[in-house]
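Annotated sample (chain length 212).
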Amino acid sequence: MKRFFIFLYSLTVIIFSSCSQNKAETGDLQSNNHKKETAMKNEEIKTLVVFFSHAGENYSVGNIEVGNTKIVADYISKRTGAAQFEIVCEKDYDMPYMQLIELAKKEAKDGELPAFKGKIDNIEQYDTIFIGGPVWWGTYPQVMFTFFKEYDLSGKVIIPFTTHEGSGLASCVDDVEKAYPKAEVKEGFSLYGHEVRQAESKVNKWLEALGF
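Output written by the structure step:
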């Protein structure tokens, strides 16, 4: 009788272990299938991240080598496989934060359109374009408006995002809609600059809700 109970116990352990392994394998298979489906979807939908990011002295985070918006752009590309175009202004913005704020205020007031370096070849190949930047004086930095003037994104899906320290999206979404009335502008996403270095999961959750 004792041997029978030992045999029965051993059989139960084997069955339970087999079920657990099958469940784990099924979970891994489902996870891999999701990744493959996402990759296939992203291959079909050509995606680009256009952004301006400011390194150097930033409010709340101090002197940083990589700008807050650049970090978010990298999260987006990592998740979606999107190409990137970083808007690099020909004007030098390497200055103390308060001085930068005054310059941003003046640029916005004057409607200045600062020049930027480089260009995007064959922008027509992209179906979906993320547009991101910090909030300077209530909207994107003025160099972003230079981009809006130079590139026609009519018919494309545009997804605005910002990094900020209290302004949220400000008027960025409205300004994108004004610049591109014939595009499909999605609801924007904003993230505190001091959070971005620990916010990859938050960005991924937003992207997942968008279907990426």
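Annotation: The two ends are 59 Å apart (CA to CA).
Annotation: Residues 2-44 form the longest helix (43 residues).
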